[in-house]
Amino acid sequence: MIRLAVFDCDGTLADGQANICLAMALAFADAGLAEPDPRAVRQIVGLSLPQAVAMLVPDRDAELHDAVAEGYKRHFRAMRTDGRLAEEPLFPGIADALTALLDGGWTLGVATGKSDRGLALLLAHHGLTHHFTTLQTADRHPSKPHPAMLYAAMAEAGAMSEATVMIGDTGFDMAMAVAAGTRAIGVTWGYHDRDTLIAAGAHQMCDDAALLPALLDMS
Which pTM was predicted? Predict the structure, then answer.
């Protein structure tokens, strides 16, 4: 039986909060909005952009939400082009954990609110592209917590839901896993707190990436 471990990206594999907060602040300024609280921005990491903006300014209409989302993408591309992007480091222990999972026979995937391009660049930068069999992004799916990303990952990898685990740092990841009928492991080094992850359906919690391989083998 194929065992599939699907990882969220921002907040789980890598820490991209500096770039996310800057691009969102610039997009808000373009729209004539006050700069969002970085703490609020961190709470919407993982959602697709229009849904994320809607959570930040729920009293504004969909047209503005879409405009800010497009502004975010425009600024992120510009930051990448002119070298303003901050480093998006892997969280401690992640690289070794991925290698251990592969050595242990796991198939790996990613389900993320990032774009195809953004995910590809991050994985290539860290030399991780070859680790993953299936990559699912916001470019091709509804926003989390809709289960479409996990359904597609399982179909592409040939895995059943009972042999699939979703690993993520937000309640959106946990709720997506519950909706798809997979296991859900919440990690505490990301953007949502432990209580939020458990309330959203986390079956297990992990405080240290080095412990992930053993935890997955128990799931």
Answer: 0.93
